[in-house]
């Protein structure tokens, strides 16, 4: 997996998780408004329980997605660290080759 692809995947997953978090907040807001509504003398307990169960399920799914995002971040970080080490090794090899060649000679 290329670094660019990993970044795209991470960005997409974060966007998707953020959208689900917004949906969850909206659902909680609807439940709150049902509970606090003065218009209804009786709250339909079944609807309220269904809504709470749905929010709970969505919350659990959101937690799973957050773990997936964290895993992608760890993978990306590991990939970046590996690439940095490889670049440092190549740089050191080039420095050694340049040093072994000695100073440039001037020809007349």
Task: Walk me through the structure.
The chain has 108 residues and is mainly alpha-helical. It has 2 helices and no strands. The longest helix is centred in the last third of the chain and has 57 residues, at 45-101. The protein is rod-shaped. The two termini are 52 Å apart. The mean pLDDT is 82.
Question: What attributes does this structure have?
Answer:
mainly alpha, 2 helices, 0% strand, rod-shaped
- In the predicted model, the low-confidence regions spanning at least 5 consecutive residues are none
User: Class by helix and strand content?
Assistant: mainly alpha
Radius of gyration: 28 Å
Distance between the termini: 52 Å
Kindly estimate the percentage of residues that lie in beta strands according to DSSP: under 5%
Provide a count of the helices.
Answer: 2
Give a short account of the largest sheet: none
Count of beta strands: 0
Global geometry: rod-shaped
SSE string, helix = H, strand = E?
Answer: HH
Residues in helix, %: over 70%
Average predicted local confidence, pLDDT: 82
């Amino acid at each position: 997996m290329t670094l660019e692809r990993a970044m795209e995947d991470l960005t997409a997953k974060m966007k998707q998780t953020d959208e689900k978090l917004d949906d969850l907040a909206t659902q909680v807001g609807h439940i709150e408004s049902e509970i606090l509504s003065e218009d209804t003398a009786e709250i339909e307990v079944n609807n309220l329980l269904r809504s709470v169960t749905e929010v709970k399920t969505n919350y659990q799914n959101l937690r799973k997605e957050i773990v997936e995002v964290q895993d992608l971040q760890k993978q990306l970080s590991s990939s970046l660290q590996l690439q940095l080490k490889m670049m440092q090794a190549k740089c050191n090899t080039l420095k050694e080759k340049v040093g072994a060649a000695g100073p440039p000679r001037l020809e007349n």
